């Protein structure tokens, strides 16, 4: 019963944390967007509005697999951008791409304009992670991965990658969807889990009471018959 109560509290606290993160995100998104160059190699707050100007580096595009959207299998497309007036590189989550239903390993390069482009979005320290199935493939241009962080990408590419990811929110004619999950997307699920643990705790208490009464019933009857 105590274990169930502790797990219920843990799930409830997770739901509250998700809602607090969403509130912070909404407040920060009201701020004017900052130039990605202004942060240097520092780590901005999550969901800080940012714009980046620079040139795409399509030779280092990577894909995060197993990211369904609306019941359709797909992946997130990430591509680095070399920032204008800076030698640094920012890794940009450009959007979601549906997977080829006939060949899951077939990868499609989205339209990528040459020259200087401008992209707006919000800061993510890392994208949502999924369960890694088997050994991770080598990180290289065009790799299909389960998870990725900027440290891994910096080491594999040799590029001066910033320690955060720009999650794109500005529209582009590239066929990618920008329907990103929010921090509170799992709050209701966490509260549902909390109620389930509370229900199990209550059942444990009821079963304990029932079996305690049944254990003592023969003793009571024996005492009554002996008297």
Please, could you describe this protein's structure?
The chain is an alpha/beta fold and 227 residues long. The protein has helices at residues 2-28, 150-157, 187-226, and strands at residues 34-35, 49-56, 62-64, 74-83, 89-98, 117-124, 144-145, 161-168. It has 2 domains: 1-27 and 187-227; 31-181, no CATH class. It has 3 helices and 8 strands; from the N terminus they run H-E-E-E-E-E-E-E-H-E-H. A hairpin with a 5-residue loop joins strand 4 and strand 5 (89-98). The chain is elongated and about 85 Å long.
Strand content: 15-25%
State the domain count: 2
Sheet with most strands: strand arrangement: 2-4-5-8-6
> What portion of residues is helical?
25-40%
Largest sheet features:
5 strands, mixed, barrel
The helix/strand order is: HEEEEEEEHEH
What is the count of helical runs? Answer: 3
Taking all residues together, what is the mean pLDDT? 87
Number of strands: 8
The backbone outline, from C-alpha atoms, is: elongated
| Rg on CA atoms, Å | 26 Å
Structural class: alpha/beta
Uncertain runs are none
Instruction: State the distance separating the first and last CA atoms.
Output: 38 Å
Subcellular location: Cell membrane
Main location: membrane
Pfam family, one: SURF1
Membrane topology: Multi-pass membrane protein
What characteristics describe this protein?
227 residues, alpha/beta, 2 domains, 3 helices, 8 strands, 33% helix
Q: What layout of secondary structure does this protein have?
A:
Blueprint: H1 2-28, E1 34-35, E2 49-56, E3 62-64, E4 74-83, E5 89-98, E6 117-124, E7 144-145, H2 150-157, E8 161-168, H3 187-226
Parallel strand pairs: 1-2, 3-7, 5-8
Antiparallel strand pairs: 2-4, 2-6, 3-4, 4-5, 6-8
Helix pairs in contact: 1-3
